[in-house]
């Protein structure tokens, strides 16, 4: 699918810039040009399709569905899947959270949604396809959804409602007045330009991270010796997975910047499971998200939430390393 | 009559984009309207929305969760 792009990169670097094919600089530059273009194309396509889904995704109806039906525990799974489908904007997480809880959806189910939403997002998926291929992407997405299901279910078992902020509890007690919503009246074709534009805006917003990430990746790719990480991180010692995850949580690199670097780690000998766990820790949990959630829940609840998810990520890291 | 426009959003890039679009739409067409940005999450939740940014015209939520085009805003204001 991307042969033409590889040919273009070869031509640009080896012929036009006349950098030798067997030099470090040559391979690094080639890698950089090829990956940057490939990722940007993939990003645009995936973000565009997610934009269409987003435009038609009936989040209110989903809320009612999760609330009304008795789903025998499957509601955690559904909430997690929906979290993966809906494009995530960290600024929407609080309104979504309150909307869910207010709609009578149990806290645990809401958490399932909240965990998967940033974990499996369109930018991360596009980057994963570009750097690791389809198979690794499917593993990442499926395990992200399962992780959200299990972690949400666990959190639900703890009965943590009393740890919500006072004003949220108040909202839950007396249902606030329902506002009128004019509704959307425009056709699909009328919406295409704006969906295209917002897809482009998202891509524009992450371009600089993609370039920095791939530049670091390209530099490492060309200069870090083979098996370098094998000596330190790749040996599969038991502590490498927890270490990777704990390092990742405070890191707020977005998926666009982090995946190219991880890819080089894997190429140089870090097990894929450890790398996926690291990735999940980076995008799934972050300090900015915690600050936003602070408005709706106590610090204690945030701490419990983050700990449970961190532990689940560490376990899935072990699991990947075992089965992959 | 003056339109009362409220933009609900916690300050994310999309919310800023919506504010810019609305301001332009109002200025370009000489529409008599007041524009307020509502950034306090407790206030925002009173409008019963789940995705931001949202555009509220005369107390009716008209758009939520996305940035509208200028033309769309003008149409809504007429």
Kindly summarize this structure in a few lines:
Chain A has 324 residues and is mainly alpha-helical.
CATH topology of chain B: Glutaredoxin
CATH top level of chain B? Alpha Beta
- Helical content class of chain B: 25-40%
What's the helix count of chain A?
16
Question: How would you sum up this structure, described in words?
Answer:
The complex is a heterodimer of chains A (324) and B (78). Helices cover 75% and strands 0% of the residues of chain A. Chain A has 324 residues and is mostly helical. Chain A has a domain at 64-169 and 226-323. Chain B has helices spanning 13-28, 41-45, 70-77, and strands at 3-8, 33-38, 54-57, 60-64. The mean pLDDT of chain B is 85. A four-stranded mixed β-sheet of chain B has the order 2-1-3-4. Chain B has one domain: Glutaredoxin (3-Layer(aba) Sandwich), CATH 3.40.30.10. Chain B is α+β, with helices and mostly antiparallel strands and 78 residues long. Chain B is globular, with a radius of gyration of 11 Å. The A-B interface holds A 54-55, 59-60, 63, 89-92, 94-96, 98-100, 167, 171, 176-182, 186, 193-194, 197-198, 201, 205, 292, 295-296 and B 9-15, 17, 41-42, 44-52, 59-62, 64-69, 72, 76. Chain A: The chain crosses the membrane at residues 39-57, 77-101, 107-130, 137-156, 206-224, 236-253, 265-287, 299-320.
Keywords:
heterodimer; A: 324 residues; 75% helix; B: 78 residues; alpha+beta; Glutaredoxin; four-stranded mixed beta sheet; 3 helices; 4 strands; globular; transmembrane (chain A); transmembrane helix (chain A); UPF0718_permease (chain A); Permease (chain A)
SSE topology sketch:
The complex is a heterodimer of chains A (324) and B (78).
Chain A: H1 3-16, H2 24-56, H3 59-68, H4 74-85, H5 93-102, H6 107-119, H7 122-132, H8 134-157, H9 166-173, H10 188-223, H11 228-232, H12 240-248, H13 255-267, H14 272-284, H15 287-293, H16 299-323
Helix pairs in contact in A: 1-2, 2-7, 2-10, 4-6, 4-8, 5-6, 6-8, 7-8, 7-13, 8-16, 10-13, 12-14, 12-16, 13-14, 14-16
Chain B: E1 3-8, H1 13-28, E2 33-38, H2 41-45, E3 54-57, E4 60-64, H3 70-77
Helix pairs in contact in B: 1-3
């Amino acid at each position: 699918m991307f042969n033409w792009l590889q040919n273009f990169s070869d031509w640009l670097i080896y012929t036009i810039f006349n950098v030798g094919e067997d030099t470090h600089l040559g391979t690094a530059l080639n890698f950089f040009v090829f990956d940057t273009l490939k990722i940007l194309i993939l990003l645009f396509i995936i973000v565009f399709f997610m934009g269409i889904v987003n435009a038609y995704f009936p989040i209110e109806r989903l809320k009612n569905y999760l609330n009304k039906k008795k789903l025998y525990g499957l509601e955690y799974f559904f909430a997690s899947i929906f979290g993966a489908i809906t494009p995530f904007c960290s600024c929407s997480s609080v309104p979504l959270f309150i909307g869910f809880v207010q709609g009578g959806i149990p806290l645990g189910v809401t958490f399932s949604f909240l965990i998967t939403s940033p974990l499996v997002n369109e930018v991360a998926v596009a980057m994963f396809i570009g750097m690791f291929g389809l198979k690794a992407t499917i593993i990442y997405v499926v395990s992200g959804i399962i992780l959200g299901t299990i972690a949400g279910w666990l959190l639900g078992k703890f009965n943590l409602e009393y740890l919500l902020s006072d004003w949220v509890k108040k909202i839950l007690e007396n249902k606030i007045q329902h506002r009128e919503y004019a509704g959307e009246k425009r056709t699909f074709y009328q919406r295409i330009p704006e969906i295209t534009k917002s897809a482009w805006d998202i891509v524009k917003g992450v371009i600089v991270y993609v370039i920095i990430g791939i530049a670091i990746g390209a530099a490492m790719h060309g200069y870090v010796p083979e098996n370098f990480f094998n000596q330190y991180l790749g040996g599969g010692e038991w502590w490498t997975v927890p270490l990777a995850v704990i390092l990742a949580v405070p890191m707020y690199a977005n998926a666009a910047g982090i995946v190219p670097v991880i890819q080089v780690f894997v190429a140089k000998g870090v097990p894929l499971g450890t790398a996926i766990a690291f990735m999940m820790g980076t995008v799934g949990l972050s300090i900015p998200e915690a600050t936003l959630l602070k408005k709706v829940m106590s610090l204690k609840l945030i701490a419990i939430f983050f700990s449970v998810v961190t532990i689940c990520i560490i376990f899935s890291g072990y699991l990947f390393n075992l089965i992959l | 009559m003056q339109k009362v426009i409220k933009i609900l959003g916690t300050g994310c890039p999309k919310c800023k984009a919506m504010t810019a679009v609305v301001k332009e739409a109002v200025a370009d067409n000489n529409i008599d309207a007041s524009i307020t940005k509502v950034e306090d999450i407790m206030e925002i939740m009173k409008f019963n929305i789940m995705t931001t940014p949202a555009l509220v015209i005369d107390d009716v939520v008209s758009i939520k969760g996305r940035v509208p085009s200028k033309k769309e805003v003008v149409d809504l204001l007429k």
